[in-house]
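Entry:
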Amino acid sequence: MKTEIDLIAESVAEARDMKEYPLTPSQMGVYLACMHNPSGLMYNSPLCYTFDKGAVDINALRSAVERAVKNHEGLRFYIDASGGEPVMKPREVKVDIPVIKASESDLEKLKNDFVKPFDLEHDYLFRFEIIETETKMCFLTDYHHIAVDGTSFSVLCGEISALYSGGDIEPEEIGQFGLSVYEEKFTSTPEYEAAHKYYENIFAGLETNSMLVADMNEDEAAADKPCREFRRILPKDISVEKVDAFIKENGLTENTLFLGAVAYAAAKFTAQEEAVICTVNHGRHDQRMRIQSA
């Protein structure tokens, strides 16, 4: 019987000879949302790193970013839906990092202009730009979420930092394409079938109507939907320190505590004893996803 390690190794080896790769379920969700709203920015991940002018070796930074990007096949693909089913296709990428000289009075506009929608079928899934003003150097980055999440972003930052400092990085062992093949193969395993039945039993008999009841008028003028926000300031007696102490005392995680609060509130608002909420896994506690430090 194949172990999970066997299946991963088989998937990585098989991926080397493939010309196209299926989207993972999470990627498919992102892709469909982007096709529904192609001008939206909800899956952009822009950041601006600000340094004193002259504090950073721009050429060394450019070189480090290029090597880090080219170390990951998850940043070197585009989506091709010409055959009906969207798939990932690998391609060579050129890491272009323009340097713009500007006045500090124009900085905010330049930063805002940097963030724009990605065309998943044509654009690279990353963008970089350096802005130099009279006193500052700003390094702008943006990745599309179909290629980069919190964990992979942390890996990229670590690699860029290591390379900029004169160090080296390990070649990627399990990339996006191998993962894609693995996830597709995993759906045919007894473990997947057992998990499917487990959750099927948990949610059996629960209401399946997922149409949300709107309590706010939609902003028709906004191009990036959903566009309405609801914010409430927490009382002053709730602090990060008190939350941290509470979860440690009760054996919880922050994710469990706040997701439980949301579920409790939803049940009260819907006047039901149980509430089912669909969300991504915010925990990220899978040991395989942990970054090991030397």
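Residues 54 and 213 are 54 Å apart (CA to CA).
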